[in-house]
Write a structure and sequence with these properties.
InterPro entries: Methyltransf_11, SAM-dependent_MTases_sf. One of its GO terms (molecular function) is S-adenosylmethionine-dependent methyltransferase activity. This is MET27 protein. Pfam families: Methyltransf_11. By secondary structure, the chain is an alpha/beta fold. The chain has one domain: Vaccinia Virus protein VP39 (Rossmann fold, 3-Layer(aba) Sandwich), CATH 3.40.50. Helix content is 35%, strand content 25%. It contains seven helices and seven strands; from the N terminus they run αααβαβαββαβαββ. Strands 3-2-1-4-5-7-6 form a seven-stranded mixed sheet, with helices on both faces. Helix 4 links the parallel strand 1 and strand 2. The chain is globular and about 50 Å long. The termini are far apart.
Length: 234
């Protein structure tokens, strides 16, 4: 597939089912190489997610308070900052990743939080938008975190989520979309976008290539939390 073997091995390892302490140690150890590895993968999720959120989000961006969940080293924050977002908070379960994120200087606040085990250490209805990019997948963050993301989002606020569509993630993606649909039918949020993207990142094996083109595909979802404010006429 043209990728260095070490990069392939690390990407495969992160999606493999493993105990939580082992997974967190892996991310701590991966932090120093993470951005180099995802560049080799041609990983487009941060760019695609930030562009989609910026398009949906009413101006002015600079006044909005955003939460970057599973923020990693800050790739999503860089893309959001380029689009005018300035008030960025982040959470991640890896202290090593948070250290890298802190070094960017893009976040006003960063907190350690293990998603799926701990509630977000943040106030209810506090954020104008919440992103969770790259971590909704097999062996990573469970889809049961969705209500917690909604809790910290303001009514009328936006949620930007992504997942992959490669073969080994299809079971997780199906479960995620069931959970997304249940929340929509309950009136918790409304779907604004579900955009399939063919060239999401390079595949690590031929079997994982979604269309046999050497890449996997993925999806960007944008939801708006209900109740959505009504615009004043006139």
């Amino acid at each position: 597939m043209g990728l260095p073997a070490a990069v392939r091995d690390r990407v495969v390892a992160v999606h493999r089912g493993s105990a939580l302490p082992e997974r967190l140690r892996f991310y701590d150890g991966w932090a120093a190489r993470y951005e180099q590895d995802v560049a080799a993968l041609e990983y487009r999720a941060p760019h695609l997610a930030a562009a989609s959120l910026a398009f949906a989000f009413p101006a002015p961006h600079a006044e909005a308070r955003l939460l970057d969940v599973a923020c990693g080293t800050g790739l999503v924050a860089r893309e959001l900052h380029r689009r005018g977002f300035r008030c960025l908070h982040g959470v991640d379960g890896s202290a090593g990743m948070l250290e890298r994120a802190r070094s960017t200087g893009l976040y006003q606040e960063l907190r350690l939080c293990v998603l799926g085990r701990d509630p977000l250490p943040l106030p209810t209805e506090h954020y104008d938008a919440v992103t969770l990019v790259g971590a909704l997948g097999e062996g990573q963050v469970p889809s049961t975190v969705l209500p917690e993301l909604l809790r910290v989002t303001k009514p009328g606020g936006f949620l930007c989520l992504t997942t992959r569509s490669n073969p080994s993630n299809l079971r997780y993606k199906a479960e995620l979309e069931v959970a997304l649909g249940q929340l929509e039918r309950s009136g918790a949020w409304q779907k604004l976008l579900a955009q399939e993207v063919e060239y999401w990142e390079r595949a690590v094996t031929e079997e994982e290539s979604t269309q046999g083109n050497g890449y996997i595909s993925g999806v960007v979802y944008i939801y708006q939390k209900c109740p959505v404010p009504h615009l004043e006429e006139g």
